[in-house]
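Title: Comparing notes on inverse folding

I've been comparing how different people in this forum approach sequence design from structure. To keep things fair, I'm posting one structure and asking everyone to reply with a full sequence. Here's the target:
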């Protein structure tokens, strides 16, 4: 195709399109109905889809079928092991103690015929371990063999006699023998030395106890009475407290400078520091206490120096005593093992656990062979799953460990010289107040959370019973059964559950049939638990057995399958004699039959299924409240309150990393790497352990596994400049679990930031509250004026109030808002009577009290005769926005009833002169300086009544009305009080509400307004959102060199605190990798936060140069062109300040600044200074916003930025050093450890607040204008009505004369022959009609204008501001947080 042809076809296409468009437009204008029909034929499809109501659809289905019918049964070989990190292997311990035989069993088989439990305890010194058990068994065998040889017995007899002792008894004997051997050794050592003479003892009878007591005293000197003190710890505590106090002082200095830079007054700065005075005082008090504690330890050391020197001289005796202490601890350990076996057997026998052949107990101290590295690694990795699969966990709440006096007490109890101490906890409800040490251990967190159910014993191994213990495994199963029964919506026996007595009747069937079952005796108030035990026994008899490894995701399928199996067993052998289960089922059905709600015939299998479901639903209803209450209490003393799903009993693993770590950070561990290893089960991961790697490396490997397996982004929500990881490629990870909790220093800083935010935003919140109150009043008044046709409302009051509100500042109006609101509310309520269009009985005005409008009554009076239009009506002022137009002019001839018109400067209606009017309208509210004074216009006289046009007798308070309101003087006086106030008295320095409060009103006005209720307005409230799970939908790639993912990158303006000090530290650094700590201020252009940071010297040195350049160009507005006097060509710097925008011009008008030019150096005064402040701060914010809005991320490389994982609600922002990658297209990053960056408590930029302040004033001004337009509309509407009344009266007068009625009027037409008078009359009447029509047009214009202003109020005001800050203005206006919003989304960054 040639070029000419193409051009021709293009031209033809354009011409055809134009002609088609024109033809279509003509068709639409001429016959729109035809065009509409044509479009419907073209575009409306013949087929119309049918839409279903989902709720009705599912409700109809559920009415005919149960939700249980839709559950798919699992495969018979299904096991929850497929979802566990270890799979089928190592699901159970490799070594356990048989509860019945008390023997240690290697590789026990756990299945349907066996079960096991676990002991949770705190290690106290030297515990009985696997090696000791093995050695003790070997020694016992050798001793028995030696004894047999000595007695010439056969080997077979020896082996038989040895086998009579179980392992626990064997170990007990060995422990006692070890103690006896050590006592003999100590006595021998004492005899050989001069220890007896030094101690002043004559013989060695009680030498062991004396030496043990002496050794305990020296240990108290080393560790304190509670095992957590001592001289060295006192020194360490003093050093720590001194460092914390000095750091606090440094931070105070930096923060003080930051506050001064923000422009805060000194009193507000003192208030901010005062918010943390208690913390500062506590820091100083900690130092004082540490110094006193150190002095006390020094005193104790000096007093006990002789005891210490004794053991220094006799080190062999010291070592022997220490060994005796260890053997005493081991004997106590085997007592623990023996008692735990007894308690576990008691629990298995007393509570409704399955009756199995084998029952085992696993204890970590003696069931792991730590000499075997492979077994040790597997055991630590799989320990979480072992707890998860155990039937229950027995928790020993022992006394505190590492108490130096314990060995001496154990010795004295063993020798029966003192009675054993009493139990530490008497009842289960006392656990919380006791605060056991068990709740502070790292491993016990996993033991509590992952166990199915728990039982508790005190220090004397007494069970601490609670009612829910009686339900045994159903404590764990009940929440899952509730998931299943919630779908049983069509059970025909459901009505039996409506009454608890019916449930009791159902539970009593087992007693009626005489079937034996296990029942735990409980107090009478625990009736629901007693009934639950009976229902559990009934389910066991019906052979209903739930799987042990039930989980939330598969609970419904597994329980459905268990019900199916039980029903099959009950109905399979129909011809066989009925067993207990079948007899019980028949009894249950007999009780349930009266409650059948369906006439449908059910099979035996269906009846059995519904009966079992009823038992399950009854059981769940009985147990739900007790179990939830118990789990909440356990969570409180176990310190796991933030695990919501665990408290509901639905989840025991795969928790949010942040939640798990925050719980762990408050616990203790003997081995530091245990902080990482003990969470493998809770987080659902496994990896080989290596205790020598250190905590930071172990934590890094744990977090690697979590990110790989779950994409859990909460891993990265940590804070603390001191917690940055030193491992290369893992800067996103912390070095310690404490990073997931707020430290005391961070809490102090956060408290101060909250106070700063409160003070900085207090004025904004007050102005927002003031604006909400004022706007609420104005909007209510607008609706009142707009929706009601009133002629008797006191518009003069509204006019004066509008004038004051329009011009006054928020601070000036704040004390009077309540009273102004009451006045407007009084107008709305007291004058809320509509003009009745039907004739009413005439009543004298004197019957109603003046100033008290009659509500709900409509009265009419005779209108006064109008000799002329100008003598009665005040015409409102015409709108200046209304365009002029020409209309025909009609001549008028004065009649004798008219007065000569006075000259008027008011504009005519629609461009022509209206009849001469007196006191034209009210002045514009902007220019009006005084209230309008009502003027008398005449006295009412009798005249003909025009039906339907008579006004009510309530005193009319329009500007045009002649009568005044009795409250006028008081209202206008109060309004003048508002207008005359320059500053609000009683206002405190922080800008809070005046102390004097709302001024009291006296006189009649105060009495009238006393009954008017105050208007209620909501206060601003901001709250950050919390998320339970934070899983990234995007891939996160974990490599040896770093972590790669999709990040949101927010450019920020960073300012350094004490930059010169940081430069000196950079200069004096010994290597590029040296960490340097400091403080910086981060601004997004809209909000600022101050944080402390720590980063390598190489990164900090680059950022310091960038900070200096940004400060000069962005914050101060300097540039090379400006320095050379050339101006700024791109308009980003000086030109933006000098260029006067629309909002600046409007602001000048509002501030009444003379237009003397922008360069007038002599312009002074408050208005000019306020305008300059607005302009400078606004230009600064504009530069900052444009800086952070850089569209090219390449240009941002090399700076500190904010980053977070993209597309993840709840992912937190962190500070990051961003740089270009090797290819120039990818990006590298390194996280900079900082305090928490919380924009929910951020302070808005000062310039943005200035913008917002003007924004609020302009909105207030616009609302007043809207109400003004509506009132103008009402005035013109009233003018139109009164003109219509006058026109009708005039016509009536001309026809009927001066009141002679129809007869005189009938003759007047024939008697009048004056054509000139008739023509003059017609011209006058025509002019009156046109004037009335013009008034109607102006009324419509004002109504349209007010409606337009109201619809586009916020949008019109926002247009006055730069586009790049309008979003922030709306956020401030809606009381939203100024979160980072101008970021580069989903950018691939490799984080080192």
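Reply #1:
Here's my take.
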């Amino acid at each position: 195709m040639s070029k000419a042809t193409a051009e021709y076809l293009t031209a033809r296409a354009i011409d055809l399109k134009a002609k088609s468009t024109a033809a279509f437009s003509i068709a639409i204008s001429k016959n729109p109905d035809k065009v509409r029909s044509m479009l419907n034929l073209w575009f409306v499809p013949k087929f119309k889809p049918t839409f279903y109501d989902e709720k009705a659809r599912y409700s109809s289905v559920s009415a005919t079928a149960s939700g249980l019918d839709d559950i798919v049964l699992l495969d018979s070989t299904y096991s929850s092991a497929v979802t566990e990190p270890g799979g089928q292997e190592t699901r159970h311990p490799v070594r356990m103690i048989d509860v019945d035989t008390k023997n240690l069993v290697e590789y026990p088989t756990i299945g349907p015929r066996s079960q096991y439990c676990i002991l949770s305890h705190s290690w106290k010194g030297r515990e009985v371990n696997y090696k000791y058990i093995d050695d003790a068994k070997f020694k016992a065998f050798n001793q028995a063999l030696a004894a047999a040889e000595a007695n010439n017995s056969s080997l077979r007899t020896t082996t038989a006699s040895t086998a009579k002792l179980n392992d626990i008894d064997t170990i007990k004997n060995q422990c006692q023998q070890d103690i006896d051997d050590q006592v003999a050794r100590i006595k021998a050592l004492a005899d050989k030395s001069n220890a007896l003479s030094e101690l002043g003892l004559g013989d060695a009878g009680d030498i062991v106890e004396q030496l043990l007591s002496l050794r305990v005293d020296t240990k108290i000197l080393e560790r304190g009475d509670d095992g957590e003190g001592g001289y060295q710890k006192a020194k360490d505590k003093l050093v720590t407290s001194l460092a914390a106090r000095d750091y606090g002082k440094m931070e105070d200095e930096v923060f003080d400078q930051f506050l001064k830079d923000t422009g805060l007054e000194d009193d507000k700065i003192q208030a901010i520091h005062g918010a943390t005075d208690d913390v500062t005082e506590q820091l100083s008090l900690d130092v004082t206490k540490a110094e006193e504690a150190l002095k006390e330890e020094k005193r104790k050391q000096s007093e006990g120096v002789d005891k210490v020197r004794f053991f220094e001289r006799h080190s062999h005796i010291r070592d022997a005593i220490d060994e005796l202490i260890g053997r005493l601890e081991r004997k106590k350990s085997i007592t623990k093992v023996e008692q735990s076996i007894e308690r576990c057997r008691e629990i298995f026998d007393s509570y409704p656990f399955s009756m199995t052949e084998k029952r085992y107990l696993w204890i970590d101290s003696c069931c792991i062979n730590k000499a075997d590295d492979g077994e040790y690694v597997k055991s630590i990795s799989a320990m979480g799953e072992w707890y998860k699969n155990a039937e229950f966990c027995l928790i020993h709440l022992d006394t505190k460990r590492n108490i130096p006096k314990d060995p001496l007490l154990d010795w004295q109890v063993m020798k029966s010289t003192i009675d054993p101490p009493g139990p530490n906890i008497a009842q289960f409800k006392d656990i919380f107040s006791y605060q056991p040490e068990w709740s502070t251990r790292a491993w016990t967190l996993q033991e509590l959370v992952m166990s199915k159910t728990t039982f508790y014993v005190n220090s004397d191994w007494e069970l601490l019973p609670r009612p829910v213990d009686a339900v045994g495994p159903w404590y764990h199963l009940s929440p899952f059964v509730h998931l299943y029964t919630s779908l049983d919506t069509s059970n025909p026996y459901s009505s039996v559950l409506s009454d608890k007595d019916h449930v009791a009747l159902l539970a009593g069937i087992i007693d009626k049939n005489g079937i034996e079952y296990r029942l735990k005796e409980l107090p009478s108030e625990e009736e629901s638990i007693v009934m639950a035990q009976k229902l559990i026994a009934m389910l066991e008899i019906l052979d209903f057995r739930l799987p042990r490894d039930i989980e939330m995701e598969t609970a419904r399928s597994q329980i459905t399958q268990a019900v199916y199996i039980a029903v099959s067993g009950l109905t399979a052998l129909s011809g066989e004699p009925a067993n207990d289960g079948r007899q019980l089922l028949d009894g249950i059905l007999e009780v349930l039959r009266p409650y059948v709600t369906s006439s449908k015939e059910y099979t035996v299998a269906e009846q059995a299924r519904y009966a079992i479901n009823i038992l399950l639903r009854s059981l769940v209803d009985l147990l739900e409240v007790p179990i939830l209450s118990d789990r909440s209490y356990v969570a409180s003393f176990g310190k796991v309150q933030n695990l919501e799903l665990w408290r509901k009993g639905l989840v025991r693993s795969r928790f949010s990393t942040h939640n798990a770590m925050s719980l762990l950070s408050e616990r203790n561990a003997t081995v530091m790497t245990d902080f990482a290893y003990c969470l493998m089960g809770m987080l659902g991961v496994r990896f080989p352990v290596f205790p020598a790697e250190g905590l930071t490396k172990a934590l890094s490997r744990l977090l690697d596994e979590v990110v790989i397996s779950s994409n859990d982004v909460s891993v990265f929500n940590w804070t603390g400049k001191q917690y940055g990881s030193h491992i290369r490629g893992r800067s996103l990870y912390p070095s310690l679990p404490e990073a997931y909790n707020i430290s005391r220093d961070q809490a102090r800083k956060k408290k101060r930031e909250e106070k700063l935010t409160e003070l900085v935003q207090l004025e904004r919140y007050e102005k927002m509250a003031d604006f909400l109150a004022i706007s609420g009043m104005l909007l209510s008044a607008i609706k009142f004026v707009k929706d009601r046709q009133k002629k008797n409302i006191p518009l003069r009051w509204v006019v004066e109030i509008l004038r004051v509100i329009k011009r006054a500042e928020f601070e000036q109006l704040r004390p009077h808002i309540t009273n102004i609101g009451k006045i407007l509310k009084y107008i709305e309520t007291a004058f809320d009577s509509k003009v009745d269009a039907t004739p009413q009985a005439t009543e004298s005005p004197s019957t109603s009290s003046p100033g008290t409008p009659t509500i709900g009554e409509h009265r009419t009076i005779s209108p006064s005769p109008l000799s002329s239009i100008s003598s009665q009506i005040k015409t409102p002022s015409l709108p200046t926005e209304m365009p002029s137009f020409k209309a025909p002019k009609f001549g008028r001839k004065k009649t004798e009833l008219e007065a000569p018109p006075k000259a008027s400067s008011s504009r005519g209606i629609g461009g022509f002169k209206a009849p001469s009017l007196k006191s034209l309208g009210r002045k514009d509210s902007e220019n009006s300086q005084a209230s309008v004074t009502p003027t008398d216009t005449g006295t009412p006289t009798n005249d003909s009544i025009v039906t339907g046009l008579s006004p009510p007798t309530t005193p009319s308070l329009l500007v045009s009305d002649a009568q005044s309101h009795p409250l006028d003087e008081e209202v206008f006086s109060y309004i003048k009080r508002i207008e005359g106030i320059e500053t609000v008295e009683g206002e405190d320095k922080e800008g809070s509400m005046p102390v004097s409060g709302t001024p009291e009103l006296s006189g009649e006005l105060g009495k009238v307004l006393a009954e008017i209720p105050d208007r209620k307005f909501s206060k601003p409230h901001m709250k950050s959102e919390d998320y339970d799970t934070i899983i990234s939908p995007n891939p996160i790639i974990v490599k040896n060199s770093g972590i790669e993912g999709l990040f949101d990158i927010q450019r920020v303006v960073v300012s350094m605190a004490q930059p010169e000090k940081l430069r000196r530290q950079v200069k004096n650094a010994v290597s590029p990798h040296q960490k340097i700590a400091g403080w910086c201020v981060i601004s997004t252009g809209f909000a600022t936060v101050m944080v402390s940071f720590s980063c390598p010297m190489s990164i900090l040195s680059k950022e310091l140069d960038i900070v200096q350049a940004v400060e000069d160009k962005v914050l101060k507005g300097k540039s090379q062109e400006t320095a050379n006097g050339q101006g700024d060509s791109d308009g980003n710097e000086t030109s933006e300040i000098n260029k006067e925008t629309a909002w600046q011009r409007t602001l000048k008008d509002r501030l009444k600044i003379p237009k003397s030019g922008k360069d007038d150096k002599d312009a002074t005064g408050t208005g000019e200074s306020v305008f300059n402040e607005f302009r400078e701060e606004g230009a600064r914010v504009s530069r900052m916003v444009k800086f952070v809005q850089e569209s090219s991320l390449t240009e941002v490389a090399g700076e500190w930025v904010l980053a977070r994982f993209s597309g993840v609600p709840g992912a937190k922002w962190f500070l990051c050093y961003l740089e270009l990658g090797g290819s120039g297209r990818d990006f590298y990053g390194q996280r900079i450890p900082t305090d928490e960056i919380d924009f929910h408590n951020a302070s808005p930029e000062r310039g943005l607040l200035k913008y917002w302040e003007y924004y609020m004033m302009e909105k207030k001004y616009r609302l007043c204008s809207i109400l003004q337009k509506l009132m103008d509309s009402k005035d013109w509407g009233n003018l139109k009505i009164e003109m219509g009344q006058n026109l009708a009266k005039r016509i009536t007068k001309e026809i009927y004369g001066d009141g002679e009625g129809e007869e005189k009027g009938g003759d007047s037409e024939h008697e009048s022959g004056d054509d000139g008078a008739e023509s003059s009359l017609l011209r006058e009447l025509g002019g009156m009609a046109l004037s009335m029509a013009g008034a109607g047009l102006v009324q419509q214009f004002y109504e349209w204008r007010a409606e337009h202003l109201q619809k586009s109020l916020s949008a019109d005001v926002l247009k006055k501001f730069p586009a790049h800050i309008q979003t922030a203005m709306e956020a401030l206006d809606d009381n939203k947080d100024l979160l980072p919003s101008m970021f580069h989304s989903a950018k691939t960054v490799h984080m080192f």
